[in-house]
Amino acid sequence: MASTRARRPRSRFTKPQIEDFFARLTEAIPDPKSDLEYSNAYTLLVAVVLSAQATDAGVNRATKRLFELAPDPQAMVDLGEEVVRDHIKTIGLFNTKAKNVIALSEALLQLHGGAVPNDREALEALPGVGRKTANVVLNIAFGADTCAVDTHIFRVGNRTGLAPGKDVRQVEDVLIKVIPEPYRRPAHHLLILHGRYTCIARKPQCWRCPVADLCLYDAKNLADGR
């Protein structure tokens, strides 16, 4: 009798193809890092919280002065929600985000002595922090082998066949299984930068993509970029 359990998504690439995929991305992007600007684990956390439904460039513009005034939780709480809101009013959902920034800063002071915890459960318990934000902070601030999946990585995973999935968690689960050990820490930034600047949403620049021949996307744009 056939199993009625849903088949879990898995990569459509072979192991050697996956190795080649990440090796080529590494050659094309030798120093992959976040486009967000931050000075410590706390400002990184706040920047990632603010980046939901906003561009990194927009967040950087909004936080430049904010982080000069408040580089730590106590300074942020001292500024107050109204001042935080005024600094971030150019980005989406700024009212809710201002409340969350103050609330998570208070929680860090009350529960963690003002430090950002190196623990997924503790991070996800903070106001405004979900799995994706926790993954980013754990990866960048603490060197964890996590791979946060945003819209860019979700698109790359599904479009190429590297990590198909119906939702971000499925794509993340596939990636965590297949990313080769040397690339586990930089994989998040390799994939997000590839998706942001080459494998873009509307018209992927397949004509200059370093992994175009590995990619399983049917409608490749192999013209000269015009």
Task: Explain this structure.
- The protein is mainly alpha-helical.
- It has 2 domains: 15-32 and 147-208, Orthogonal Bundle (Endonuclease Iii, domain 2); 41-142, Endonuclease III, domain 1.
- It has 11 helices and no strands.
- Helix 9 crosses helix 10.
- It is elongated.
- It starts with 14 loop residues before the first helix and ends in a 29-residue tail after the last helix.
- The mean pLDDT is 95.
Feature tags:
single chain; 226 residues; mainly alpha; Endonuclease Iii, domain 2; Endonuclease III, domain 1; 2 domains
In short:
The protein is mainly α.
> How many helices in DSSP terms?
11
Largest sheet: none
Question: CATH superfamily name of the largest domain?
Answer: Hypothetical protein, domain 2
Structural category is mainly alpha
Here the CATH topology of the largest domain equals Endonuclease III, domain 1
- Give the topology string: H per helix, E per strand: HHHHHHHHHHH
| Global morphology | elongated
Oligomerization state:
single chain
What's the number of structural domains?
2
- End-to-end separation in angstroms reads 53 Å
Strand content: under 5%
Global mean pLDDT: 95
Query: Architecture of the largest domain, according to CATH?
Result: Orthogonal Bundle
Radius of gyration: 19 Å
